[in-house]
Amino acid sequence: MSGAALGLEIVFVFFLALFLLHRYGDFKKQHRLVIVGTLLAWYLCFLIVFILPLDVSTTIYNRCKHAAANSSPPEGSNMTGLYATATSVPSQHLCFKPWSYIPDGIMPIFWRVVYWTSQFLTWILLPFMQSYARSGGFSITGKIKTALIENAIYYGTYLLIFGAFLIYVAVNPHLHLEWNQLQTIGIAAANTWGLFLLVLLLGYGLVEIPRSYWNGAKRGYLLMKTYFKAAKLMTEKADAEETLEDVMEEVRKVNESIKYNHPLRKCVDTILKKCPIDYQEKMGRNMDDYEDFDEKHNTYPSEKSLVKLHKQVIYSVQRHRRTQVQWQILLEQAFYLEDVAKKKKK
């Protein structure tokens, strides 16, 4: 079984992450790179949880063997007879090799790959992909440029603090840092930020999760809380619909002003593809087949304004879809609680 448990868990966790991603995501509507990045991030997170017990059991077994080897009597000792037999027999049954034993040299390499891949995903790739998806650019170069600028602003504060620290070390003659020490400082800083978030989220979760289950047993309280959430969500839903209507009105004006032979028509078509289907059909019916844009002295929007409008469309559509899904889930929960309350009265 040496290493077999590790291989089985690696395969099992991969299919578990793939199943959950398929359950909560839509492969048909997402780009392949987005699916691969999300699957890899989920896979590594689950992998740490499942592999850690194997590593702990293997470490305990190796420490037990090391302690038994150090505590065994030397060959030239004077212990003979019954005392030597009594001390040597229990030591043979002291360490039990676990079924999940992993051979030496595998786990250090495994944890290095998992750790540095997770760091790369957390601090570089996933934030870049998020900014790239929310960007309003119409070309790959424009989206990459916007994503780099947004991430540069976000990480500028961290680089400023780290640069100030390096300047302090360079000026101070009593401090000398090498590359390995700088790497250790970077790892410690990343772990400190992660632990800070963990303490905040765990402190909230340890109180809120048990309280939600406790209050969930009170059907009357849960129904009133659902009504309160529904009122709050209805306001957010109405605001999202109003924002979407305003943005769609701007898209309609741009769609009517920029005709099919305009150089920026491709940008308008890209914006239209991000709009809901019913709005696309309305705008398509109101469009003329052809019109020379040079014959009229209309003021056409610039490419920069179209980029801004494209970003607003992406945000408003995502917000509208999110509130619609949340509203449907909350309605189902409210109807269920109302049915339970009516049956209790009967």
UniProtKB/TrEMBL annotation:
<dbReference type="Pfam" id="PF04791">
    <property type="entry name" value="LMBR1"/>
</dbReference>
<keyword id="KW-0812">Transmembrane</keyword>
<protein>
    <submittedName>
        <fullName>LMBRD2 protein</fullName>
    </submittedName>
</protein>
<keyword id="KW-0175">Coiled coil</keyword>
<feature type="coiled-coil region">
    <location>
        <begin position="230"/>
        <end position="257"/>
    </location>
</feature>
<comment type="similarity">
    <text>Belongs to the LIMR family.</text>
</comment>
<feature type="transmembrane region" description="Helical">
    <location>
        <begin position="6"/>
        <end position="21"/>
    </location>
</feature>
<feature type="transmembrane region" description="Helical">
    <location>
        <begin position="33"/>
        <end position="52"/>
    </location>
</feature>
<dbReference type="InterPro" id="IPR051584">
    <property type="entry name" value="GPCR-associated_LMBR1"/>
</dbReference>
<keyword id="KW-1133">Transmembrane helix</keyword>
<dbReference type="GO" id="GO:0016020">
    <property type="term" value="C:membrane"/>
</dbReference>
<keyword id="KW-0472">Membrane</keyword>
<feature type="transmembrane region" description="Helical">
    <location>
        <begin position="152"/>
        <end position="171"/>
    </location>
</feature>
<dbReference type="InterPro" id="IPR006876">
    <property type="entry name" value="LMBR1-like_membr_prot"/>
</dbReference>
<feature type="transmembrane region" description="Helical">
    <location>
        <begin position="109"/>
        <end position="132"/>
    </location>
</feature>
<feature type="transmembrane region" description="Helical">
    <location>
        <begin position="183"/>
        <end position="207"/>
    </location>
</feature>
